[in-house]
Amino acid sequence: MAGWEHGGAVAYRDLRDFLRKLEREGEVKKIPAEIDPILEITEVTDRTVKAQGPALVFEKPKGSRIHAVTNLVGSERRINLALEVESLDEVADRVRSFLDLQVPQGLLDKVKMLPKLAELGSFFPKTVRSGDCQEVVRTEGFSLFEFPILQCWPQDGGRYITWPMVITKNPETGKRNVGCYRMQVFDRKTTAMHWQTQKHGAEQFRAARAKDPKGKLEVAVAIGADPATCFSGILPVPPDLDEFLFSGFLRHEPVELVACKTVDLEVPANAEIVLEGYVGLDELRTEGPFGDHTGFYSLEGQYPVFHVQCITHRKEPLYLTTIVGPPPQEDYFIGHAIERCFLPVMKMQYPEIVDVAMPAEGIFQNLMIVSIRKSYPGHARKVMNAIWSLGQAMFTKVVIVVDHDVDVQNPREVAWKALCAIDPERDIQFVLGPVDTLDHAARRQDFSSKMGIDATRKWREEGYTGIWPDEIKMNEATKSRIDSIWNQLRIAATKRD
Ligand SMILES: Cc1cc2nc3c(=O)[nH]c(=O)nc-3n(C[C@H](O)[C@H](O)[C@H](O)COP(=O)(O)O)c2cc1C
Ligand SMILES: [Mn+2]
Question: Is 232 in the pocket of ligand 1 (CB under 6 A)?
């Protein structure tokens, strides 16, 4: 095992620690030139992501003394470095090993289980007395414009904080939620809070409003930390399950939390910047437009307003941000990693699922390709319905279900085999339901139709009366005979993928 892997090594302490690692790996570029957070940082970052380039540290963002970090994990390699693995399969295997934990049958089983249980205990967030994120505490005279907050695209409604960990508590249960919701800066101390209606932040907002329509919901926003903690807000975990617990699992060490100065919430102690304040429960304001991860602008809408009453930060904080826009962007790599980590959970509930793919151009909510081991009539349709009821997968506009022997990671094979396998009128299923807020084609925002394509082989029990043909494959004897003479034939064959 290399030194930085988990042979007793510790998790990244914070964002700087990870950047140092990236520096040693030749995976970060410091930019001393003055670059404007208005549009220019986006243009540099967009070109860099698309060229599979390094993480970027803008040392002189125009108008700010604070360094801006972008493209932190915008490649498969840096995602692996962030999660301290050689490949995402390692994380999936770890997830599976916990899901496989069975009720112990005897003493020996119990003893064998102890290390796993001890490991489980180590994922829970831990409260500490002090944190670097509070080196500087400012309750007055501060301004959000001190930070190099980006205006990403020309038609954006303003500057947006794009990678926050928005922390709230469920007013009923006291359970924490962490969500990554963009925040448009309205003025020195005020932003929008763009939690979409189906998200847990919005749910807690409604629960708080039901209790006290004119009250406030306390909110803390942490920006920049070790990478696994930064992923917390993005993880699609069930309601009331603490995202920091999952980050603890990903980093093999608890997320350390410190109490906020002015609100009854806790934030990662290693964060770079923390905004403390509240969202007014009787206040909405126009937010948007915003150049979104669909590659199009999401339009203006009415969203809650976040009032910042205190900013705490490190002495020389780094401002971590990301851009979304025409795919692929950094969020594709993050989303893909999350998809790989959660696949074992999906397979536990639906063991017939063999593999899942969400190509970058499908921007997550538009396309999911699923291969299944089909074992009863209508099985593909059952799987579509499962996906439409599985957490944020409910948004999936098009689900293509193929047989187990189709490689869903290969879009060419999927197009070929899926299109051959369908009688469109028979095999396409439309449903109505919740769709992503960002779907601009939807008949109504948040509510529209979705489509499932049953591209599995059709069975007699499903009313198919023909004979499903075999796929063409050369026999092994012929292949090995030709293999043995191939070089003598001297055919300059070009390699095909
Ligand atoms: C860069 C980035 C920006 C995001 N912006 C938003 C946003 O503005 N609003 C939103 O509802 N979800 C946004 N998301 C998706 C949420 O973070 C994601 O759905 C998360 O699981 C929500 O957490 P929750 O389930 O606790 O509500 C964004 C994701 C990424 C990667
Ligand atoms: Mn949540």
Answer: no
What length is written for the chain? 497
For 439-474, b/e burial (b = at least 16 CB within 10 A) is beebeebbebebebbbbbbbeeebeeeeeeeeeeee
Say if residues 215 and 203 touch (Cβ distance below 8 Å): no
Query: Mean of the per-residue pLDDT values for the chain?
Result: 95
Place of tokens 């509070």: 134
| pLDDT tens profile 349-370 | 999 999 999 999 999 999 999 9
**Cβ neighbours around 388 below 10 Å, total:** 17
Ligand having the closest approach to the CA of 230: 1
Give the per-residue pLDDT at 1: 30
pLDDT tens digit sequence for 401-436: 999 999 999 999 999 999 999 999 999 999 999 999
User: In sequence order, which residues have a C-beta less than 8 Å from that of residue 216 and are 6 or more positions away?
Assistant: 278, 279, 280, 281
SS3 for 297?
Answer: strand
Q: H or E element: which one contains 167?
A: strand 164-169
Ligand 1 atom 13: residue of nearest CA: 181
The answer to whether residue 292 is catalytic is yes
Out of 45, 73, 153, 181, mutate this one to test ligand 1's pocket (max ligand atoms within 8 Å of CB): namely 181
Question: What pLDDT is stored for residue 9 in this prediction?
Answer: 62
Q: How many CB atoms lie within 10 A of CB 320?
A: 24
Q: How large is the greatest C-alpha to C-alpha distance in the chain, in angstroms? A: 84
Q: pLDDT (tens digit, 9 = 90+) per residue, 112-157?
A: 788 888 888 889 999 999 999 999 999 999 999 999 999 999 999 9
Q: Which residues contact 231 (CB under 8 A, 6 or more apart)?
A: 82, 247, 250, 334, 337, 338
213 neighbors 189 (Cβ within 8 angstroms):
no
Does pLDDT of 225 surpass 50?
Answer: yes
d(C-alpha 463, C-alpha 197), whole Å: 41
Contacts of 117 (CB under 8 A, 6+ apart): none
d(CA 54, CA 23): 10
CA-based torsion, 93, 94, 95, 98: positive or negative: positive
Among residues 30, 311, 270, which one has the least CA distance to residue 147? 311
Report which bound ligand comes closest to the CA of 392: 1
> For residue 78, how far is its CA from the centre of ligand 2 (angstroms)?
25
Q: In 3-state terms, what secondary structure has residue 213?
A: coil
- The three-state secondary structure class of 470 is coil
pLDDT of 497 strictly over 90: no
Helix (H, G, I), strand (E, B) or coil at 435: coil
The arithmetic mean of pLDDT across residues 166-179, rounded, is 96
d(CA 399, CA 381): 10
Name the residue with tokens 């990903």: 250
Return the SS3 of 356: strand
